[in-house]
Design the sequence.
């Protein structure tokens, strides 16, 4: 309980620092500064695909966290992230465009942020075969860029009906985990959740053999009646480096979460309180083990 309370205090401190330059909400029509984070639009989505994600934060426990994710498919880019994160950015952008309603939108945004469970932002540059990955850990964001990994799929000659839809089956090894996937034979989109791609149909279900990560298709929209941007947001408390260094940094944070956060100069805690803090590690079960 002490650890949870301390973490909340730290997150609030980071929030205050990150938004100390934001406009006051006393006047809902105040527009001196943007309500939404700065956005860089890369492409426009032609198709939206939705996946339910069930994952274990602790691989030694059976408890799973459930998240709703979204995959945006464009001509040049794809974006995979948390659905509620995408919605909160969309609402904030709409408020800026209309230049009103900040006060009303604030409560909606806090509700959406509370439902956000998947804290990664994966953008694929289809023309250059590059993936940009951003991950939120506590209140900070970590990013690296790499070549889009090639997945060696093994197709299994056995069709399956899932919810009345004809599906093919395939397996692969991907960065430390063994996966089984079922893909829709009648929807020839070679995409799926996270960075899984390259099958001859849209992925309907993919899971690792130990059930640490399970993605299940639960929605699809095409012929979108409105523009849905594929974009990056600019944020403070942001760090960019190589994949190896970012992964090592995040691992260190989970191993020593309290000590790492106390290194930030914003934290001022007396010696008595320091001695009582819980310095135990937190479970870390990333989708990529290697």
Sequence:
């Amino acid at each position: 309980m002490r650890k949870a309370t301390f973490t909340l205090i730290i997150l609030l401190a980071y929030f205050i620092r990150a938004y100390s330059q934001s406009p006051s909400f006393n006047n809902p029509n105040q527009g001196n500064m943007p309500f939404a984070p700065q956005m860089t639009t890369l492409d426009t989505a032609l198709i939206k695909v939705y996946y339910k994600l069930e994952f274990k934060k602790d691989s030694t426990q059976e408890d799973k966290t459930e998240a709703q994710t979204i995959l945006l498919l464009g001509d040049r880019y794809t974006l995979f992230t948390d659905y509620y994160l995408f919605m909160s950015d969309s609402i904030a952008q709409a408020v800026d465009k209309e230049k009103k309603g900040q006060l009303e939108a604030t409560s909606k945004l806090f509700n959406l942020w509370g439902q956000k469970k998947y804290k990664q932002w994966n953008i694929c540059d289809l023309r250059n075969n590059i993936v940009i990955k951003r991950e939120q850990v506590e209140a900070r964001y970590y990013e690296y860029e790499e070549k889009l990994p090639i997945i060696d799929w093994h197709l299994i000659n056995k069709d399956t009906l899932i919810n009345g839809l004809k599906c093919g089956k395939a397996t692969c090894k991907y960065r430390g985990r063994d996966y089984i996937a079922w893909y829709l034979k009648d929807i020839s989109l070679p995409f799926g959740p996270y960075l899984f791609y390259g099958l001859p149909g849209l992925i309907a279900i993919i899971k690792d053999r130990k059930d640490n990560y399970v993605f299940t298709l639960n929605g699809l929209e095409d012929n979108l009646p409105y523009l849905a941007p594929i974009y990056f947001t600019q944020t403070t408390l942001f760090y960019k480096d190589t994949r190896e260094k970012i992964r090592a940094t995040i691992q260190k944070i989970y191993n020593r979460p309290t000590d790492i956060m106390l290194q930030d100069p914003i934290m001022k805690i007396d010696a008595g309180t320091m001695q009582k803090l819980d310095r135990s590690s937190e479970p870390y079960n990333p989708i990529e083990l290697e």
